[in-house]
Amino acid sequence: MYSSALVVGYSEVAGSSLTHAFLFNGTGGLQDLGTLGGTDTRAYGINSAGEVVGISSTSGNVASHGFLYADGTLVDLNIITNAPGYVILGAVSINSSGQIAGTALSPSGVSHAIILTPTAVPSPAAAWMGLSTTALGVAALGMRRRRNRGRCHRG
Question: Of 2, 29, 108, 136, whose CA is between 20 and 30 Å from 15?
């Protein structure tokens, strides 16, 4: 993925079988983005603000969750969203408005394609941190289900 001379992806960690997400700015090597407590991460999307999204294993590798990486911090999307009962499994793309495309598990156990939309454009990205899920203000994300009708749309 390419955005504002930044590249994201994932690679095996040297000397192990672990896979970690990385950010590359064209100089200085790959920056390891870390994990959500588990052993593996994969970055799939980046926007013009340098915000990165992807998937990470959680502590103990018991689950995989979508993440947002902004201003040097990796955050579980399930912590900063207002989507009661849904588990955000992964994020694949983020646009310049901060909207995130991904997948989530519904309360009934069905997987859905989702769009997470900020209630206000996050600026700066650090404002996403330190806020509760009920008072996210800038960081609050609403969730809208999108039916999969066998079509793929690229914007």
Answer: 2
